[in-house]
Predict the structure.
Amino acid sequence: PVKVKYASEIAGFYKNAGAGRLNAGDVKQAEEFYLEAGNYNPAISKETADSLFANGKAKKDDNLLYLAGRLNPGLKQAIGDHYYDESKNAPNAEAKVKNLARAAEFDNTKTGEYQESRDNLGRFHLDEAKKWAKTPGKEKVTDEHKVQARKYLGDAKVNAELPDEVTYGPGKYTFSLKAGEQTLHRIRFVSGVTFSISSQDYEYYLAYNDGQMLKDGENVKYPQKVWSVFKLQAVKDQPVITMVVK
């Protein structure tokens, strides 16, 4: 066992080593050194944690606050409160959710509010993606919102509500589009089927991935099967477009 008179010196050595690694950006190694310092002199952990906490709040530095919580678990409530306060003053919804997530890490009583805020933000982005997906030429903004929706809601939710394409088997399907709108997803078919599409006035196009636009009509011949992946795009309001797959 290390003699008491040497313990403080060794603790100081590890503390300085931790500070050096932290300055170099190596948070994990800094954490190990700081914890080792506390093994030799518990008082140094509290002292270091208090300093990290104060600097972390002042600089809004996540790494410093994380280390403060590791060295002194008694600070976790205060760290959670700090992030919660930051969420209330966040400049945008993304920053609010990020700070609530941090708050919940240190204070589990904030978990419910974080989850609700995250879900609301994800829903906003998914609804925006749906809105823009109906507008031809807005693929980029649609994809940007989908990426954010996946971040907060997960892939399964987004894929269920806004898939890139849907494969149709035998059956009768209907679509409703306003003038200028297109279907949310591309239409594809299972192998071995035929299909027909109609509406009261045929004022819609079949819009293919290669840019081809086919105006439909009673006697229009659809492109070869290799091209049968498309979106429907309305010229005028189309309350009911009927697609029959056999």
Q: What stands out?
A: DSSP finds nine helices and eight strands in the chain.
